[in-house]
Design a protein that fits this description.
- By secondary structure, the protein is of the alpha/beta class.
- Helices cover about 35% and strands about 20% of the residues.
- The chain contains twelve helices and 15 strands.
- The chain has helices at about 65-75, 80-90, 100-120, 145-155, 170-185, 200-210, 230-240, 250-260, 270-275, 275-290, 305-315, 360-365; strands at about 5-25, 25-40, 45-50, 135, 140, 160-165, 190-195, 220, 245, 265-270, 295, 335, 340-345, 345, 360.
- The chain is globular.
- The structure holds magnesium ion.
- Magnesium ion binds next to loops.
Length: about 375
Amino acid sequence: MSVMRVIRLEAVPVSVPLREPFTSALGVQAVSDYGIVIAEADDGSVGLGEISLIWHGDGAALCGLVNRVLAPAVVGADPFEPTRFQAVAAKLLAFGRHSLTAVAAVETALLDLAGKAVGRPVCDLLGGKARDRVPLSMSLPIGPAEEVLARARRLVGEGFTTLKAKGGGDGDRLVELVARLREEFGPGLGIRVDLNMACPLAKDALRLIRRLEPYDVLSVEQPLPADDVDGMAELCARSEVPIMADESVWTTGDAWRVLRARAADLVNVYVPEAGGPLQARRITDMCASAGVGVAIGSMPELGIGTAAAAHVAFSSPRLDQPSDVAGHLYHADDVVHGTLVIENGFLLPPTAPGLGVELDRDRLERYRIAAPTTSSVL
Ligand SMILES: [Mg+2]
């Protein structure tokens, strides 16, 4: 069997609007400025990846990095050697934390090509399916209670059984929202809470978490700043509600530090932050070894990035809470067709070869933007 080679790699910056602006403790997001990575192989097949990044600039700004730095290193590569690619990328982009989202997009494109080459979905390259459906969680933005509750009603009406309430500086607002969600939807609704690092101190977080305890929340996500691993460990030791690490864990190295410090009951694992689907799967393996729970997180991604996260969710050895693998649902449109199948709040396994999504060139052109000038990320 002849070896497949990548003959061309390009990242295209796009700007796709959200269905409605989304407010969290991180700010307001109305569009996703991301990058679409297109890898062409010598057999004519095309692999896709997505640079999804909402912090510190954006994914679109990293397209130049892919085109200038990573593409020359990837052309000629065998898509079945993502580990070798990671080593090359680590050398080229030393200390580039945000550039991991670009590395993730390229790794995703390589896996998409490899899956297509053998006619199997990407999850089969990540250990194979470990479950037949993935429970989803949809997020509720920070906003006026009536608006947020209307959104919750719509989502529950669509069949979703877990919602994630975003919290910020106003603890009273959050506690009131969670109380009203519990009152209106009863014990059958799974409620997650995400604080996106809003609490300055572990003691502040603990006080807020104790107020949430009566409402039976599944987890409280990242109450403290990403670097406050000691504080997160203190919360894990003292909180009755499971603590989920999100911003504290980007890479396998972060996972090692957080797991070793017992600073999370659960970890929200992201493909873009980990540096690709294989890297994200390594983190889920580490969590499994440490006896720590797993959920799969979202930026939220468009269809390509969501598919990549789905393959990780289906192949992870453990998946403990409903996951955010539905980024495409927050967007008004997409650049791919062949979307993921969601049934009654559960994601069904993608079965097509590779990621299972195909680029729509017309829509790629519709959402293409001029390459952003160099941002602070680079
Ligand atoms: Mg989060």
